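Lecture 7 notes: from sequence to structure.
We start with the chain below.
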Amino acid sequence: MILSMGVTFASRSPGTIFLQSSSEVINGNNPLLENKNSVFVRAENFLPGIYDVVVKAPGSKGTILGSGKVEIGSSGSLVFNLYNLIPFVDTDNEAGVYTVVMDGNKMKNFKLETNLVDPDDPDDPDEQEQYADALIEYSGFIPIANGEELNRMRNPYPEGELFGQGTKWERQYITNGMMSSYVLVKDIDLSGFSNWVPIGDSTNRFSGVFDGNNYSIKNLKIDSTLDYVGLFASTLGQLRDFSLVDPIVRGNNYVGAISGYHWFGGVQNIKVVKSPGANPSIQGYNHVGGVIGLTRENFIGRMTNEVDVFGNNYVGGIVGEYYLMNNIHIRDLYNSHNKGNITGVNNVGGIAGNNNNGQLSNVINEGNVTGNDYVGGVLGRTSGFSSYFIEGISGAVNTGHVKGNYYVGGLVGIFIRERMVDSYNTGIVEGVNYVGGAIGGSVNDNNYEIGNTSATNRIYSSGEVVGSIKDGLVGQPMGMTLNNSFYNSDMSNTIHQGIGVPLTNDEMAEPFYFNNFDFAGKWRIIPGESYPYLVWHEAFYIPLKINLN
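Predicted structure tokens for the same chain:
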């Protein structure tokens, strides 16, 4: 939207106000303000004191949108950001003349126009246009401007085909189909496809680069009984920087909103989101994920899922299964966030149903997780090689309700040859046998002569624990070493078994008892008011102390 100048009303007493841009502060009016955050006001020739500032909406009634106060000092002048003083909401964006009133009679108008920056105007490029320019003109990327062009990606066009329709990049491009690289240049709406056919199949995989350029793809609908189902059936290249809005996806095995099976190549900054009032979902049988069904040998980061996921075995909010062939954690699933509810049978987790040798860092689950066996707030099952002294899981957080039967944990259901540090659970954990506030159970694996011991350091659980065979921290602690690991004894209702340190609800909110937690670095705590929390997710969640009264 564009803000342009109106007129200055005559003042009845000394003192004048001006509108000016955020990029340059000068006397008088600038001809154009780029957006509502740039409405800067300069007050001049006022007497020192505190003055009322009012913004009125367009129309004859002059509805007051909001008001605030500014203080002018001895200089008699002040520059302030009107938006910081009186935030405008989206509903205030109707076209018309807005009025700024200061001290009852010092008035200034500005006009709010609803037209957006023109992406095809070479004199007014935005960041997305500049980015697309660089990829298309210098790196050989092909622009995607609508659903039909997205659908064409599956086929090569050695003689050329039209892409980028309706934009300045519109022309014919020679493509190699699923081996080429593409960039979105507009938001895409797939509502014209009643049943989208996934791009590629189990052997013919997309192996180029798909760059979303921070645009969105809306209304993906797939109703299939086949394997390898998603926007892409199977991928081998790079996927990055886009949102999938309100997808409804149903398949058999290897099902994900973005890709059913991602073999190799980085995946980052992808969001699967839910609009208010919508009811999107991802459904399948085995290997079902909110973003990807199964992935192997990859770095995956900055992923978000908000939709509900349903499946049978290996079901997760981000990926159904994160699988690495190597014996050492050399790939990372990082900075990812699940908000959807996850429902399955076995190997069910808020982030991943199963993690095999992968490394997870800074992940948070807020959704409810429900299954039968091997059910965890973050991971249903995880296995690694702890003898390499590599932290397989760090910075993992669960706040959702976790419910199952056997091996049910606030963070992990079943824990095999793994190491976990700097993690915690605040959600309710409910099961039958081997139920733990953090870990359902750890088991020895006699197939390996080394790396057979699991360990934790700086973890805790503050949530309620419900079950027959249960513990505040680890339901079945076989072959485990716990260091600096705690649980809320008032909430867990368990008899201390020597695994983890019990603390009362009040003690859980005091830094004194967590003396090996780095409160100057990774951790924070509000003494008496919160349990410890990790700095990286402070914007998401601060675990306030439960009031037991």
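Points to note: The mean pLDDT is 84. The helical segments are 82-85, 127-139, 147-152, 489-492.
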